[in-house]
Amino acid sequence: xxxxxxxxxxxxxxxxxxxxxxxxxxxxxxxxxxxxxxxxxxxxxxxxxxxxxxxxxxxxxxxxxxxxxxxxxxxxxxxxxxxxxxxxxxxxxxxxxxxxxxxxxxxxxxxxxxxxxxxxxxxxxxxxxxxxxxxxxxxxxxxxxxxxxxxxxxxxxxxxxxxxxxxxxxxxxxxxxxxxxxxxxxxxxxxxxxxxxxxxxxxxxxxxxxxxxxxxxxxxxxxxxxxxxxxxxxxxxxxxxxxxxxxxxxxxxxxxxxxxxxxxxxxxxxxxxxxxxxxxxxxxxxxxxxxxxxxxxxxxxxxxxxxxxxxxxxxxxxxxxxxxxxxxxxxxxxxxxxxxxxxxxxxxxxxxxxxxxxxxxxxxxxxxxxxxxxxxxxxxxxxxxxxxxxxxxxxxxxxxxxxxxxxxxxxxxxxxxxxxxxxxxxxxxxxxxxxxxxxxxxxxxxxxxxxxxxxxxxxxxxxxxxxxxxxxxxxxxxxxxxxxxxxxxxxxxxxxxxxxxxxxxxxxxxxxxxxxxxxxxxxx
Length: 524
Known about the structure:
With 524 residues, this protein is of the alpha/beta class. The protein is built from 22 helices and 22 strands. A nine-stranded mixed beta sheet has the order 14-15-12-11-10-9-8-5-16, sandwiched between helices. A four-stranded antiparallel beta sheet has the order 4-19-18-17, with helices on one face. It has a three-stranded antiparallel beta sheet with strand order 20-22-21. β14 (369-370) and β15 form a beta hairpin. The longest helix is centred in the last third of the chain and has 18 residues, at 505-522. The protein starts with a strand and ends with a helix. 45% of the residues are buried.
């Protein structure tokens, strides 16, 4: 496939960490149209296709059922053009309070720095001691054996030599950064190997990476070290290698135990294989073992969802479980399959709300510990540190192709193209692709979002901490949300989510951030 110079220059505007997926989408669109040369106009047309717009005059958008939106890893906004503040009145607030979910994760965004400032900014931040009390490391493994339909994070297919070659690059990158002040001057409390599929690496490479992390990074005595993976190809040799290397937490993407729904979504292992592997992990008794479940998948009825939750509670000894709402990303394999009619539609948001309610009730009746609005723990072994800390804006040092991190008021995004990643690492250079400077009040926004994700926030205390009268500023929203049954605002300053508010928390958190920006701008 040939790219014109103008197209390549146009594509430079795309953040590096999403270029592989975006490039694949453009070339797929070109092949579908029988076009062999990529131009800026073709890129725009492919983008319109991905966004679900008509390329005819007027640019009218198609209205899609369910929880559809755009994959934006830098802001997590599903619908960047929508700022929803007030809930609908006179409706069932659990199912219909808002038209759409506005973001995957609520946040305030930021401003991208010029390309010539990227490495300079990284160096300044890394040479400065980090005073944060919550410090994490994220290590990205960008390979998968296949692209599951529901997933928005696929980057590269695992090839024969991928594990050895990539691990070698990671080992070098980690050792290069290990002596920097921002790394060494303070303990690391959580390390997360994410992807992609980390468990697709070979056993020896998994162990070498874990040993490298323990050797070069100042891990706290109680550091949580998570290996993310899936059931398929997670052999006993790999499990043992991870444990020898020091992993103390496994997070497996099960999504559903139902074999038919799994096969529809591109998952290979059946129910029996899942339960067998989970049993082996738990029998090791060496690490916390948790799974992800997703509600709202195509062909996943309420009965199937209830059976998924029941299986976790009654048929396993797992330490925890995340129950996530399905997001469908425009241009992704699931969105394309639904639009082409090869896969049935996913659940409407109102049905997802009912599934959320059922999962919540079953977990509460089983007396599980609620670590966040979507994460449940069965034992004290499960702490969910990485996710909890990053929600509150913790420092995160990134390693690997496509990794993202956060340090000293900046978001750092690493190169998303493997050749560029390898070239820069081999040259002894940190492979940062883009940098986003975060807003001045990012610490406030992060704490607000973190508290909301736990179901309660004391607005009076939070406002005093940042010298802001947010109780008064947010009053119009809070009064309307209380009227519509989303929150209970107590006189002592505590804001408590109702069941409906819990389901819509991300949308409400984003609304508070957007409303704050609107009101502070208005008052300047």
